[in-house]
UniProtKB/TrEMBL annotation:
SUPFAM superfamilies: Putative DNA-binding domain (SSF46955). This is MerR family transcriptional regulator. Residues 20-87 form the HTH merR-type domain. PANTHER family: HTH-TYPE TRANSCRIPTIONAL REGULATOR YFMP, REDOX-CYCLING DRUG-SENSING TRANSCRIPTIONAL ACTIVATOR SOXR.
């Protein structure tokens, strides 16, 4: 191991080379609960195989989980994420077009929210000045 490699990078590289994962492995790797993973499964976003009552996740499921978590972190709804994942095996151009459309919508929403925040902050500063001079 190179001294610059972090433990997380080594664990990620190890995980990427594996074919099968238990739910606890994925939960630990991504710092989420097994309940969250089961929730994503219940919404049809993940489809692990079952051996008795045990869920067996494959590399594809891990990749989908990465996309789900990235989408959530960026503020996309589960519906948006589901739409994107439904194109996972489809034509790459359809996937890119949908992603670009959803990203543009998200940027527009965040810009509107930023404008609203700037306005609110300005108004609160004015109120504070008025309160200080009263």
């Amino acid at each position: 191991m190179c001294p610059r490699e972090s433990t997380k990078e080594v664990k990620t590289a190890d995980a990427e080379s594996r074919d099968l994962f238990a739910i606890a492995d994925l939960a630990k790797e991504f710092g989420i609960s097994t309940r969250a993973i089961r929730f994503y499964e219940s919404k049809g976003l993940l489809s692990p195989e079952r051996v008795g009552a045990t869920r067996i996740f494959r590399r594809r499921d891990r990749a989908r989980l990465i996309l789900i978590l990235r989408g959530k972190r960026l503020g996309f709804s589960l519906r948006d994420i589901s739409d994107y994942l439904s194109l996972y095996d489809a034509d790459r151009s359809q996937q890119v077009n949908l992603l670009a459309e959803k990203v543009d919508e998200r940027i527009a929403l965040l810009e509107r929210q930023r404008d609203d925040l700037d306005t609110t902050i300005g108004e609160l500063r004015e109120i504070r000045k008025l309160a200080e001079t009263a």
